Amino acid sequence: MTAAAPAPPAFGTSRPEASRMIADRAADALLKELDAWRKPGLVSRIDSGSHNDMDADLLATSAETLRSFFVEFAAAGQHDAPMEELRELGLRVEAAMLAARGGVNMHRGAIFGLGLLCAAAGYMQSAIVPSRVAEVLRRRWGHAIMRGPSPLFSHGAAALRQHGAGGARAEAAAGFCSVHEIGLPALQRDRLLRPDDRDAAAVQACFALIATVQDTNLLHRGGAEGQQIAAAMAEAFLGRGGVGMMDWRERAAAAHAAFVALGLSPGGCADLLAMTLFVDSISRPGERQ
């Protein structure tokens, strides 16, 4: 019996080129998340939202710095690295970023989430289908993700102890269901509705995630009440038509101002939005980004 031929490299390129292309999509997704304006409480090119320790320039520099590290994640996935290797890589990247940024946690969640998705995309080695990225991540590394050590002093770990929130680790082990079941449908549907508005679809996806996801950063900043307030405001925005209405910018800006006044920042949803933008982009490799 003849052995099956190996799958073609991702995007029809060599393995190193595929790793670089995957990494470029990941870093670009972080920049697109930053560019989207009127995301409630979050840093954008316009202002720093509820944050006084970071701004758009710092986040953009961080995203560009991560580009080369995402190459390593994709390459690790290509050679079917075990979770221990991916975890060590993530810890090394996180330590380097924290040292370079004076201890400010700017992209810790993105290093974890986008790093794993880059590994899953690298593992596939062929034309990438969003649902298959989730399946690869869940089947190949899901159990190992949940068995791994939980950091004692992270926002997610604190939220888990106090509020019973699953956090990023549970999301990752399940293949980032929030990306595939909430973020992507909202992004893709509203991009069709407003194809000429580069912000609308990303903002809609962001509000959809805030309305649904238990965000450990919101729990850290505002407790259960802050999480509930944020979800209710996002649901109200969506319930009135979201970005499908002519006044969506004004209503999104009002939600942003309310989040800032309350000191709320859905940082976990920002990471999920970047992951949504990444998975969307790698499933459309031939399109201009």
From TrEMBL:
Extent of the signal sequence: none
UniProt xrefs under InterPro entries: CitG, TriPribosyl-deP-CoA_syn
Assigned EC number: 2.4.2.52
The entry's keywords: ATP-binding, Glycosyltransferase, Nucleotide-binding, Transferase
A GO molecular-function descriptor: glycosyltransferase activity
Annotated catalysed reactions: 3'-dephospho-CoA + ATP = 2'-(5''-triphospho-alpha-D-ribosyl)-3'-dephospho-CoA + adenine
TM annotation in the entry: none
Annotated PANTHER family: 2-(5''-TRIPHOSPHORIBOSYL)-3'-DEPHOSPHOCOENZYME-A SYNTHASE, TRIPHOSPHORIBOSYL-DEPHOSPHO-COA SYNTHASE
Function: Involved in the formation of 2-(5''-phosphoribosyl)-3'-dephosphocoenzyme-A, the prosthetic group of the acyl-carrier protein of the malonate decarboxylase.
HAMAP family: MdcB (MF_01883)
Family: Belongs to the CitG/MdcB family.
Stated name of the protein: Probable 2-(5''-triphosphoribosyl)-3'-dephosphocoenzyme-A synthase
Organism: Roseomonas alba
Gene: mdcB
